[in-house]
Structures are given as structure tokens and as C-alpha cells.
Amino acid sequence: MKIFIPQDMAAVAVGANRIAAAIEAEAAARNIPLTIVRNGSRGLFWLEPLLEVETQAGRIGYGKLTVADVKSLFDANIFDGGTHPKCVGPVEAIPFLARQTRFTFARAGIADPASLDDYRALGGYKGLEHALSIGPAAIVAAVKDSGLRGRGGAGFPTGIKWETVARTASDRKYIVCNADEGDSGTFADRLIMEADPFMLIEGMTIAGIGVGATKGYIYLRSEYPFAITMMNRAIDLARRAGLLGTTIHGSAHAFDIEVRVGAGAYVCGEETSLLESLEGKRGQVRAKPPLPAIKGLFGRPTIINNTITLASVPFILAEGAQRYAELGYGRSRGTMPIQIAGNVRHGGLFECAFGVTLGELVDDIGGGTASGRPVRAVQAGGPLGAYFPPSMFDTPYDYEAFAKRDGLIGHGGLVLFDDTADMAKMARFAMAFCAHESCGKCTPCRIGAIRGVETFDKIAAGIEPEKNLALVRDLCETMKLGSLCALGGFTPYPVLSALNHFPGDFAAKPLPLAAE
Amino acid sequence: MAKQHSVWNATDAREIIAAEQHREGAMLPILHALQAAFGYIPRDAEPLIAEALNLSRAEVHGVISFYHDFRREPAGRHVLKLCRAEACQSMGSEVTAQRLLDLLGLDWGETSPDGRITIEPVYCLGLCATAPSALFDDEPIGRADQQMLETLVMEAA
């Protein structure tokens, strides 16, 4: 009998290791032979820890388990068809999962992430085989034809970036994976690296062959210790199997990957700051041009792509650019792994074609708030993304549609807030976060963010509120137009959206009554 | 589990630096390795790194001070990182964190006088659908509530 308990960091955070140990002990005590597979998470995080039992009718799930449930699972004889109140039925029929179009996350949670055999059995390395058979120029053409755009937030066409690197002559070129996923409300990169690490290795290898690069770096944030361990393990296994090294898959191409651990700087998710950090310097933003595609890491042509972007490549090569491009909305082609988080009932990763509305994601798929109170706001796209009120829930999930409404989809995060949220506090937090994380290179961000915090404090204290609110708007204009990168440049999104959609929250707070 | 760190000594530090020095852009790997060994990066490490990487001491100091991860003095025996980012805030993390700090009489980044515990902010652990989140030494914690965190910090030895 085979059962599955995720080794994913979020699952472990809510007790997966304790449950695995308890089940193992109970099975031994009752003399029941069980094979426990520590799979990756399916991304249905609200159900974690999620136990899955392999049966003839497919994998049956038992969600939100606690150690106290373990004895009763055995008493109910669930490993032999018994019923239990925590049963959520066949996992693949759970609407949250059944409604998804999983291209990039097709394998997430199915098998042991560190098993190369499982990866291959589930279609892994078909993309690389195809890539090797068609050669570099056709690889770049396929990525271009797929319409894939950078999933880190900027939405730049990936194929164009690759073409630029391919055309730039150099003694060395690099593939850099941006796995510095610092946006609150996002965990797609983490899930890729923890649940399907070979997919990222395969994607980076295809990129290397496509543009003639032989070295890849994964810049992985230190806040993701499980992903660091898993990626290093997978790289080691791929190397031993000849899938990284001097003769990739027996071809004449060489490619190898190294994990580099970040050090807690949010701004290093910005691509030029990330390159500086990889070079061993302060993570300060570089002025562009030159573009990293021409002068990137150590001054060499560099593909720097987000983790999701690179992980989307094996599917495109294996299944064809057309298959990917035929889904989508407007200029946003393919699928997007949307991450629904915060105060949400059904939080997790939802991969689907672009075009679904924000309201469907929040209400139908997310099921509203975890607290059961009305949704007040949704922050889309991380700390630099706008707050959307329910009146804007008809916005289709698409780069251009969000931009038209003064928002951004960013890296695909959605954070729900219920009606207890104080939007003036959130606007102040956006400025405070920018001040905390500013690299200090440009003045609008370095000084502007601090002045923003001070001005919000004055507003809250009732000091010339109208004048100071006008000042905040003026400051936002300066930061938006004058900052070197998206940290200072996009901090106005959460600030202005809070001001525009929730103006009532910015009235002076009544002073607390003095204690008698 | 509380982490065990060696007492600072230049001989070990030189060996650690030499083991990482061959990498392209070796600075961050060196700093992480030093912190893993000693629990922090003492000022005395700066000239050693500078010499190995052919940089000025000021450049090394500049890198160390840029990144939130690198400590300039040892932390407590346990470190509790509490997430302060938006997804955790939406689940009430700020109220919980403040109560915990008040209970311990500490501010963010401070260590209890008995050296038992350090409380630090972290901005996102990627556990945003099981918020609020925390990291206690190496152990991730999801759906963290007041009572759970209080028990954790009071029982930490």
C-alpha cells in the first residue's frame, strides 16, 4: 500500500513530518505494510497536511490532518476502503485542482521530487530531447512562437530576450534563474523547486543550448531552505545521470548549474541588482542600458529569467509552441500559475489560462476569506502591486487589462484582506517596506520612501491632512517617474490604489481616550 | 534545535574562505559559510576576506552591511523569525508579533538578556496560503497563533 505525505515546506510548517512519523509508527505497531512517499505539494495549501492513499479508484485525499487524527485513520481502516470524516475524496476531482490547466505544474505533488525515474516516467526530459534534435535556432524560435512572457512581473517576451543573447557573440554566456521570489503572496517558484526541481534544470539546460551558454546560476533566496536543499540534490542527481556536465544527454553541448543563496535583500529580485549580488557585490541596481542580454553577469551576455519562465520551457519544447500559445487572452499567451493567499479560505496555486476574472479567482476558486468576513481588498502582484476593491473584480487576468486599471499581475500573487483591513496602514506599510529594502542608489526611492512614511504618520495624526495627502500623491509621481527600478517605481501602485479606492481610511484616527 | 557554532578564530576562518574562494563572485558564499560556522561575521573577518578576494576592507564591509541576513554579533541560542509581509498581516500577524515582543520585553532584532532567543522580522517565507508564518531555527511554522508561539518561546532552552 502506497501513501503520500508532502515534504513541502508549507506542508511541514503545518505538521507533515509529525504526521508521517506518527503514521509510520502506527503502521509498524499494527503490522500494516505501508510505503510512505514524501511527495511535493499539489499546491492545495489550505488542505495541508494532505495525505493521499493510492487506491484502484485513484488517489484518495485526507486533508488538514493533525497527529490526533492518525489513530482514527487506522481505526477507520482507510487503507482498506474505510471512510473517515477528513476524507476529501479523489484528489484530482477536488474542484480547485480539477478546474486548473496544469502545463507547468502538471507533475507537482504526484511523485517524489528527487526521483529522476519518476520525472522521466511523467514526461520529463522530453523537451530536452526534442530541443537537442532541432538545434539552437529552432529552440529560440519555439520559445518566441509560444508567446511566453517573463513571469517575474515585467512580462517581457522571453523569445526576444533569448534571441538577443543568441545573437551576441562572446567567449562565455550565462543562464541566470531568478529564484529570489520575495513577493508576499507568491510561492510558485518555491513549489517548482520543491515539487519538480528537474523541470527547472531541464528548462535552464534548454536555454543554455538555445543561446550557447554553458553555465547557469539559480539565485535562490535564503528564506527557502527546503528549496535550496532540494535543488542541490536534484542538480547532483542530474549531473550523475549525464544530464548536466560536459556532454548533456550524450550530445556535444556542455551545461552545468550552481545554486547561489541570497541574503535577505528583497531588491535582489530586480534583475540587475541580482547580477551585482551574484558577482559578490552590494545588490545595487544597475542603470539600463546595457541590457543584461548584452552585458549581464560578469559583463557577458546573460539570459536572466524568472523561475516560472524557465520552468515553462520544457512543456513548450515537448508539446509544441502552438499548444502553449493557443491558450490565453490578448497578448498574454499560455497559462499563469496564480497564487491565492492571505486571508483566503482555499489558498494555493491555481494554474490556468489568462483571461479568468479577478472575481472568479477570489470568490469561486479562493472561496472568499478564511475569516468568513467580506473581502475588502485584494493586493495583486506582491508588495509593489495595487489593491483592488471588489468593484473591480471584473478585471480579466491579463498583463494589459491589469495595467489599464493601474495595477499589475506581477509574479502572480493575490493576497486577500477582509473588512477589518486598514488600508491607510497598508499604504504606509508599502512605503515602509520600500524604505527597508531600498538599495539606496537612486534618490526617489531611498529618500522618497522615508518621506512617504513620515507623511502618512502626519496624516494619521490629523496634521494638515489635505495638504499632506496631496504631498503623498506628488511624491508618488516622483518615485514612479524618477526611480531606477521597480522597487521605487512601483511602490506608488499600492499607495495610490489604497488612496483612490479607500479614501475613507485616511481620515485622522481618533486619539485613544486617556486612561482614568 | 539550537544551532552549535564555533568560537571565532582566524585559522578556521582562513580555511573556510579558501574553500569558497575559487568560485566566480565568491563573496556571498564566503559570508554564508562564515556565518554558518561562527553564527555571525565578526569585524575581524573583514580583512581576511578582503585579502583573499583582492578587495578593500571597505568594500567587504559594504557588502556585509547591505544584506539583512548577515549578523555583526552572535544571536541568541534560538532565533524566531516572524513574517511581517502582507499575506501574514492579512491574518493578524502584526498583533500576534507585538504581543509576543511585549511578553518577552524585546523589540525587533533583539535578544533576550539570558541569550535564549532572538526575535527577527522576515519578509515572506513563501508560506502565504497557511499564514501567519514563522521560522523557528530551521523549522517552518504555518497557521501560527498566539498560544503556539508563546509556548515555543517560553519552552526554548
TrEMBL record, chain A:
Pfam family, one: Complex1_51K
Cofactor(s) recorded in Swiss-Prot or TrEMBL: [4Fe-4S] cluster; FMN
Domain NADH-ubiquinone oxidoreductase 51kDa subunit iron-sulphur binding, residue spans: 424-469
MF annotations from Gene Ontology: 4 iron, 4 sulfur cluster binding; FMN binding; metal ion binding; NADH dehydrogenase (ubiquinone) activity
Keyword annotations of the record: 4Fe-4S, Iron, Iron-sulfur, Metal-binding
CDD domains on file: TRX_Fd_FDH_beta
SMART domains: NADH_4Fe-4S
InterPro entries per the UniProt record, alphabetical: NADH-UbQ_OxRdtase_51kDa_CS, Nuo51_FMN-bd, Nuo51_FMN-bd_sf, Nuop51_4Fe4S-bd, Nuop51_4Fe4S-bd_sf, Thioredoxin-like_sf
Family: Belongs to the complex I 51 kDa subunit family.
Protein name: Formate dehydrogenase beta subunit
Organism (species): Acidiphilium rubrum
Lineage, highest ranks first: Bacteria, Pseudomonadati, Pseudomonadota, Alphaproteobacteria, Acetobacterales
From TrEMBL, chain B:
UniProt binding sites for [2Fe-2S] cluster: C83, C88, C124, C128
Highest taxon of the lineage: Bacteria
Keywords: 2Fe-2S, Iron, Iron-sulfur, Metal-binding
Protein name: Formate dehydrogenase gamma subunit
Named cofactor requirement(s): [2Fe-2S] cluster
Cofactor binding summary note: Binds 1 [2Fe-2S] cluster.
InterPro entries, per database record: NADP_DH_HndA-like (IPR028431), NuoE-like (IPR002023), NuoE_N (IPR041921), Thioredoxin-like_sf (IPR036249)
Sequence similarity: Belongs to the complex I 24 kDa subunit family.
Catalytic activity: a quinone + NADH + 5 H(+)(in) = a quinol + NAD(+) + 4 H(+)(out)
Gene3D superfamilies: Glutaredoxin, NADH-quinone oxidoreductase subunit E
CDD domains: TRX_Fd_NuoE_FDH_gamma (cd03081)
Source species of the chain: Acidiphilium rubrum
Entries under Pfam families matching the protein: 2Fe-2S_thioredx
Entry GO MF terms: 2 iron, 2 sulfur cluster binding; metal ion binding; oxidoreductase activity
